[in-house]
Amino acid sequence: MPVLELTTLIPDRTPGQVLDFCLEGANFPKIFPERVTSRGDIDLDNLRIEAGHEFRFRHWMFNLIPSNWTVVIREVGDTHFIDEMLKGPLRAFRHEHRVAAGEGGTLYTDRVTYAAIGGALTEGLLVNAYMRRIFAARHRNMLRLLG
């Protein structure tokens, strides 16, 4: 399975501040570079990410194509949390969010392990580049919002 890992230094923020920002559901659509809407009875403005929490959302790929996701928060710790897709547009998707002290701020890392429906051909033609674009934009948004 492909693995995408991206780390960004967020200046003048502690690991606790960055992780706390990520655990607030209201920040999810602010970080995500494409439109995201909640499904069901989840109110992102009042959502706090916790282990075992399951939620559904619609991700508008390229801000045009609706894609439904169901994810579960597998683990939350002092320096990380992990979410995993239960249902969605990929065969598999596991996302680790990690924070660590860095010189002058916090190192924020996204590590995504995924598999596309259609396998390596689909990944090479479409999914790998899409993932790189989405996560690079997420990191730019994190810097804009926290920097």
Structure description:
- There is one protein chain.
- The protein is an alpha+beta fold and 147 residues long.
- The chain has a single domain (3-146), classed as 2-Layer Sandwich (Alpha-D-Glucose-1,6-Bisphosphate, Chain A, domain 4).
- 28% of the residues lie in helices and 43% in strands.
- The chain contains three helices and seven strands; from the N terminus they run E-H-H-E-E-E-E-E-E-H.
- The protein has helices at 15-23, 28-31, 119-146, and strands spanning 3-11, 36-39, 54-61, 65-76, 80-87, 92-102, 105-115.
- The chain has a seven-stranded antiparallel β-sheet, covered by helices on one side.
- The longest helix is centred in the C-terminal third of the chain and has 28 residues, at 119-146.
- The termini are far apart.
- The model has no long low-confidence stretch (mean pLDDT 94).
Strand proportion = 35-45%
Just give the CATH class: Alpha Beta
Total number of distinct structural domains: 1
Architecture, according to CATH?
2-Layer Sandwich
List keywords for this structure.
about 150 residues, alpha+beta, Alpha-D-Glucose-1,6-Bisphosphate, Chain A, domain 4, seven-stranded antiparallel beta sheet, Ligand-binding SRPBCC domain-containing protein
